[in-house]
Amino acid sequence: MQIHGTKFTYTIDTSYQDLYRYGDGFIARGTESIVYKGIRAAEGISSENIRMSCVLKFKRRGTNDRILRRFKSKDLKIFNDLQGCRSVVRIYDLIEDLGDFSIKFEHVADGEDEFYIDRHGFFCVVEEFIEGKTLEEFCLEYGDFPLVMRSNQAVTGFNDYSDESKMRTKKYVTDNDFCLRFQSVIYNFAVKLCDVLDYMHRNRILHMDIKPDNIMITNAGNEVVLIDFGRANYMDYGKDYVTVQFGGESLEEYGTVGYAAPEAYNLEMVPHAHFTSENLNEELKGACRLTVESDIFSLGATLWECMNIFVLYMNNAEYRKKFLRGYHYQTFFDTSIMLNEDTYCNRDLSLASVHFYEKLEQIIKKATRSRSYNYFDKSNKNYYHDYATLRDDIIDARERSPAVLRTDDIKVRNSFNVSAVFMGLLVTLLCFQGFLYFFGGYFAAHKIDSIMENYQVSKHDALRRAAEEQMKATDPDGRKRIYERIYDFYYNENEGTDKKVMSEEEAEDLAQLLDMIPDEEYSRRQFDELLGNTDRQVLLAFSEYAAAADLDIKEDSECISYKLLEKIYESRQPRYANECYEALVEYGDREEYNNLLVYLAKQLNTDEKIDKITDQQDSDEPDAIVRHSVKDYLDSFEGRGV
Fold this sequence. Notes:
Keywords: Kinase, Membrane, Transferase, Transmembrane, Transmembrane helix. By secondary structure, the chain is of the alpha+beta class. The protein folds into three domains: about 5-130, 2-Layer Sandwich (Phosphorylase Kinase, domain 1), CATH 3.30.200; about 135-150 and about 155-400, Orthogonal Bundle (Transferase(Phosphotransferase), domain 1); about 425-635, no CATH class. The chain is built from 22 helices and 16 strands. The strands form five sheets. Strands 1, 2, 3, 4, 5, 6 and 9 form a seven-stranded antiparallel sheet that branches.
């Protein structure tokens, strides 16, 4: 069943299966939204010739459309103000009337009745689809962590595993090397989160629902993307806080239990919560005031959970219930044991591995410090009051963190005593490595064949990983052959249809595989061909991926196709229109880049962008003549073929 939006038609992608294995496109259910994986198609274009991923976020309309009106007046403005930050999820469309669309929602909690998502109770927000995992899922699946075995019925825990599996998982709290690697990853994520939240704060916006489930980690490049701005708001005029009313789903706290700062709780409605310290609410009734310190508390709570997640998941059945049915039960946090001063605040790493650095623990404790009366006073050095200071402390801790703990020095000393033995084993190891090198490539090639036999787009990630495994086991020429095989497969998999196209995900996979080939000229040539044959309808989404990913091709000053792709990405913003237009003029006669040129011209061919271009043209002619000339030039690309 279709939903008709402003420029696109949307359907639920029932082929999508995430970690929960639902198989009906359902992703998650949050406090305010029900989220499905979607596909968007331009009106009038055959669905076989376009595949554009998106997220369909269904929100309740609220009494007398209260939530819908709030979204239009506040949420859309926030998203618009944050579009300059690539680490904030993008909104594509707002669909106020779902028309004839109706779907039965079956992923309900125990004791809850099933219901229908339709025009009477819901509206739809279309957002970009982030190919990745939540921070929570990323942590649990880091390395070869085998505990995440989920379904809509149960979550397998540590006690359900065999003795062999238990021994393997215990390394996540005892193995020094693993703990230090994992800690380094969390440091990097924390720095990126500080950058994103600082950008928001400088725009006078508080997120007010920071938690691992609202932070996405992309599969490509492990970039951080902040999602779910349903509770975000602007600071009060002339103030450095946000005043919010308790009510509806925010009757007991504003935010999420376990991550919201103490001042975000409505203590009258949560009798089992015992926060004895003062907060900022003062004489307010049924409301609270939240500050940047409140968001920093939530960030500290998020980092605390990341560093403790392995122990919590292995040893606490209540914590594992958080992962049931695709949305969080909060029974682990929402208890009198957790909601009190001693446990909820001043969080430490006493339950986690001893290998984690003490300075990181100090940072988390400061971020989640219990509230004194003047905790928001900028002169109170016991608290973080801005992200710049927090970021500096995290970077300092990262740089000071040991590569090998002092307790392991004895191992280093002993290594010198057995160096002769290692030299004797060197030849054997090299032979064994050659054995693995050959057979690793063989099994990877067999895996590629198996995936291709029953291929669908949802398997693109598995195919890319298999190709990467085979490429690692061969020389540069072999890597080129593997890349060309995957390229030909993706490009010809739709053979027999009117048009051969690749999905956005497949194009991204090929870009990643090209990064493994140490031949700049070859990579440039193949990147040109890739963009020349990528469907124009997915070029914008691919340009967003390329802008965020760490690709070697970005450093190639001679790669014209990437320059044009970069301009396609910038063309979304009218203020860059003239720079994009100049690139179009510079390369406009290069027919080998027609695919990119035609799309770039189309992106620029709007009244607002044409006006911007006209204003910046260095010409003595009247503006009307200049504008007409610009418009004619952009129109001239409409008739071009690929």
